[in-house]
Amino acid sequence: MIETRDLTKKYGELYAIKSIDxxxxxxxxxGFIGPNGAGKTTTMRILATLLxxxxxxxxxxxxxxxxxxxxxxxxxxxxxxxxxxxxxMKVIEYLEFFAAAYRIRGPQRRQVCDEVLDLVELGYKRExxxxxxxxxxTQRLGLARVLLHDPQVLLLDEPASGLDPRARIEIRTLLKRxxxxxxxxxxxxxxxxxxxxxxxxxxxxxxxxxxxxxxVAELLKRVRPQTVLNVGVASDAPAASEVLxxxxxVARVDLSDHHLRVTLADGQADYSELPxxxxxxxxxxxxxxxxxxxxxxxxMALTKGITS
Length: 308
Fold this sequence. Notes:
Number of strands: 14
CATH architecture of the largest domain: 3-Layer(aba) Sandwich
Radius of gyration: 24 Å
Low-confidence stretches: none
CATH topology of the largest domain: Rossmann fold
Largest sheet: 6 strands, mixed
Mean pLDDT: 89
Shape: elongated
Helix content: 25-40%
CATH superfamily of the largest domain: P-loop containing nucleotide triphosphate hydrolases
Number of domains: 2
Structural class: alpha/beta
Strand content: 25-35%
Oligomer: single chain
């Protein structure tokens, strides 16, 4: 649904984005992550046909941004980071105004507006003035607006920006629901953990260049290729560590009180023999789990915090 080839935008000698290659299929929920000023908005504006690249190509739904911008605009729903609302309108009037712009007429217009309000869980605010909405509600109203014409592709630029924790969770839940409907979603953020649990693909951009483009699982593997386990024993941790060090699957054991931090050998994913060996040696386990890599740590390992 989205494909870019060598997509580049320059301002004088400054690269806003440089040689961006993306390939998103129908139903992908793609988290576009990067520091502020990294090039996320520039990429989205190009895909939304609001900005021309310096060179490179981009296709949305098979349509070229150069020759078929009208076809692309029918396919997409673009929600910028900052968008204006008409303060003197009610929520339902605001949506009906934009529905009319999409040439949705007659009884269908009111039906479509009611459906998107229900989808974003704002139906109870349909008669409220737009000015009375909280920041989180305003974001959901903006999302309802871009859903009016049932777009196949959603380009959402920092939809959770400035929201409180509860509103962020509500936005993520809504994105999951939209992904389950088969829509291709590209959503940007400068916070990796905010999107990692809902996206099937992640791209990390820094200083205009894509430094990572794959799944979250592959991201974690790149930052830490070896599996690490946290193991706790009831007593005699030094003896337990010696049991583990003798196993070929184990590369290293670090001891701290009754806890062991066990690093497996490169390429070793099966650690089923470890608890068996400890139990057979007479040790009682109080903890045995794979150590999760903090996504913020992964993000910091791949980026340097440099902006264009």
